[in-house]
Amino acid sequence: MGDGGVLATNSEAGFSGPSPRASRRIVVHEMHPPLGSRRRTGVIEVRRDERRTFAGSQAMNQQGGHSPTDPASDPPKDEVDIAGLEDRARRARVEVIRAVARAQAGHLGGPLSAIDVLTALYGRVMRVRPDEPAWESRDRFVLSKGHAAIGLYAVLAVAGYFPIAELETFDQLGSRLQGHPDMTRLPGIDMSTGSLGTGMSAAVGMAIGAQRRRLDLRVFAMVGDGECQEGQVWEAAIAAARYRLDNLVAIVDVNGLQQFGYVDDHGGREAPWDPDALGRTWKSFGWSVRKVDGHAMADVVAELTAARDRPTPGRPTVVLARTTKGRGVSFMEGRFDWHARVPSVDEARQALAELDR
After folding, report:
1. How far apart are CA 217 and CA 188, in angstroms?
2. What pLDDT shows up at residue 193?
3. Residue 96 — very low, low, confident or very high, per pLDDT cuts 50/70/90?
4. CA 141 and chain centroid, separation
5. Residue 27: beta bridge partners?
6. What are the backbone dihedrals phi and psi of residue 224, each rounded to the nearest 5 degrees, phi first?
7. Percent of the chain at pLDDT above 90?
């Protein structure tokens, strides 16, 4: 392990060709933690010459998204920079792996399944201004599945809300990037979440407030399919239909796995819901139901844009996004044990190599 602990050069880790990533190298440090802190050994750290936000992110967002009142501002699906969004999603997944490996804490499976939808929201669908996170007319987003916070942080950093280098502080004392989102500390977070189900209630309240103030904005909330076992989700769903909140869009991350649940015949986890039954349930609560492959970026952008700009009058909308837990890393995909497992140094290195191909 020469060169100060360098495990792999760019080429050895699967990096190739000239790119903004060419200056990276994966480094392992044996760290001696302060008294009373978690023991941390083999922490992944990434050295970069560039500490700025992801190239192109500000340019994609500097206009504050598109206007819902101007159909001409919505280009056809094939004209949206899908390749750019896909690259941003890949970069966000890389940062999720690095942050969790460095902190030796956090979740991986759920954030990785949600990254494509989050990227579409912040990169194209929502009206937001990363350089003006408190803009009153912005669309709101609530991550009700708050344990996936590192996925949201990575997407926000790549979008330009704060420097990517700050992700290195994830889950540290004094950091703005705690294990669950804290709206009092990090600009760009619209609601503090963590206790499952509460985010949906908050989103309903935001939508009611916007409706009564006649604000032309939309409220998006992401919930997990396992989270939909919480009664509070359905209490919020009833209220949303009762108040005819057609400015509210719920997105269910249907990755088919949860940390704890019934065991199937093969020793794995049964899915929290049958996807068709989940859609019927939302419909029975008075919601307009849409479905999408949560990893097909062009389709995700199209469905979320339609949900935002062309809702069924008087009805809230739910988008069921079929995803894969641990998406992007072969040995994590479809594995419930990667819900909250922390990767070893070798596993983190393998994951980064796969994502940087």
Report:
1. 16
2. 86
3. very high
4. 11
5. 6, 45
6. -90, 160
7. 45
Q: Rounded CA gap, 138 and 136, in Å?
A: 6
Which neighbouring-strand residues pair with 140? 219
CA angle 109, 114, 115 (to 5 degrees): 105
- The type of residue at 25 is R
Burial tier of 220 (Cβ tally within 10 Å: 0-12, 13-18, 19+)? buried
Q: What is the reported pTM?
A: 0.75
Q: Which residue has the tokens 């649940």?
A: 261
How far apart CA 343 and CA 324 sit, in angstroms, is: 18
